């Protein structure tokens, strides 16, 4: 251990990285029947040295340090080392973040995300220690675009952790993300990332059991505001916004929320799905429409509540009336007649929408659509073949169960 101590403080970044990996190896291979590895770490004051490597090392050293600290947090007694009871401890992550550079703070936040993934109990300790407020502070202070973007990327990772939803809803992070989305003065890449984080968070069914609808509506309203803005959105932001709406539409309650109100937010998705002015925008919208209609669900035939279903039908008929095609079947045919990638995206909403009698009638009334989805040679890729077959199968199945 004296050699490890020296290694963790070495001038050479390679040596420091190797010393961090040595600590990880010690912790991973410790035999609890013999001398505790955690006790060795404590006795030789290793943890503060690992923290120094985290905030003052290069990228490889910081990553190796995080791995060692995560392993320590997974062990009995190790959690108490990583999360000291007293807020005044020098090794408390809040105190560490307050004393280091902006890059150092980003590494501290990256460590918190890694620790958050260990278990729901460790995530609860992080919440109780008020460490999530470090994310709030960095997001609120958007003076440095690069730092803010780095923090948003970390938050994007965090919302993917299965137990994150319940804990993140107790913070002010969602309101802060909505503020970023609504702020036209910020860089579009920040708004785009904030939208994608919200989309991931609101794509989960349990989200709507953990929070009140008004909190969710704040985010949805912010996204709607960006798409309704007279200021033109750049291509990337527009696609990110439509993708975020598609993520929200993955959950039944999310889809119903997007289809509610006098001016439903889902109108942006439907109109863009059949607008050939921007290829990337149309692709994002078609996939989002597929999610809203239930294509991502296991049986591809999720039916929403009555008002949401009626709004969805009216939006598609309205989109048709605003185009030269005039009827929905003309819109769908137009999509399927485009290049392979657009056609692939078009199979998704059709596969789900044919669960509705009005759409099934529209599809089956257009011989050209039936010819495309039953043509075994039109697709040349595996994913395209599977999408076409799934669409064909849904039409065939539902046409036999619907009344004439």
From TrEMBL:
Domain of life: Eukaryota
Name of this protein: ARM repeat superfamily protein
Lineage summary: Eukaryota, Viridiplantae, Streptophyta, Embryophyta, Tracheophyta
């Amino acid at each position: 251990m004296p050699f490890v101590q020296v290694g963790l403080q070495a001038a050479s970044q390679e040596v420091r990285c190797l010393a961090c990996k040595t600590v990880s190896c010690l912790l991973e291979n410790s035999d609890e029947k013999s001398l505790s590895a955690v006790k060795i770490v404590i006795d030789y004051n290793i943890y503060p040295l690992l923290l120094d490597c985290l905030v003052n090392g290069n990228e490889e050293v910081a990553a190796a340090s995080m791995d060692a600290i995560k392993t320590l947090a997974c062990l009995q007694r190790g959690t108490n080392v990583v999360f000291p009871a007293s807020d005044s401890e020098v090794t408390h992550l809040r105190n560490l973040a307050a004393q280091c550079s902006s890059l150092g703070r980003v590494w501290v936040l990256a460590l918190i995300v890694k620790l958050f993934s260990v278990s729901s109990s460790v995530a609860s300790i992080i919440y109780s220690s008020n460490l999530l407020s470090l994310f709030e502070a960095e997001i609120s202070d958007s003076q440095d675009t690069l730092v803010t973007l780095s923090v948003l990327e970390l938050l994007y990772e965090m919302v993917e952790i299965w137990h994150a939803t319940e804990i993140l809803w107790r913070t002010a992070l969602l309101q802060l993300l909505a503020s970023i989305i609504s702020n036209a003065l910020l860089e579009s890449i920040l708004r785009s990332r904030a939208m994608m984080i919200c989309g991931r968070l609101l794509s989960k069914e349990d989200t709507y059991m953990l929070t009140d609808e008004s909190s969710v509506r704040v985010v949805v309203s912010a996204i709607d505001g960006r798409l309704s803005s007279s200021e033109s959105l750049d291509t990337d932001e527009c696609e990110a916004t439509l993708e975020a709406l598609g993520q929200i539409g993955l959950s039944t309650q999310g889809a119903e929320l997007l289809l509610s109100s006098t001016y439903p937010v889902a109108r942006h998705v439907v109109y863009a799905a059949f607008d050939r002015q921007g290829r990337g925008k149309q692709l994002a919208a078609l996939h989002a429409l597929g999610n809203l209609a239930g294509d991502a669900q296991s049986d591809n035939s999720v039916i929403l509540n009555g008002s949401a279903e009626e709004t969805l039908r009216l939006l598609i008929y309205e989109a048709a009336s605003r185009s030269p095609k005039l009827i929905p079947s003309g819109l769908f045919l137009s999509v399927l007649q485009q290049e392979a990638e657009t056609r692939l995206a078009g199979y998704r909403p059709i596969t789900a929408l044919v669960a509705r009698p009005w759409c099934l009638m529209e599809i089956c009334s257009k011989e050209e659509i039936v010819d495309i989805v039953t043509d075994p040679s039109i697709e040349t890729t595996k994913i395209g073949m599977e999408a076409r077959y799934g669409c064909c199968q849904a039409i065939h199945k539902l046409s036999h169960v619907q009344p004439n």
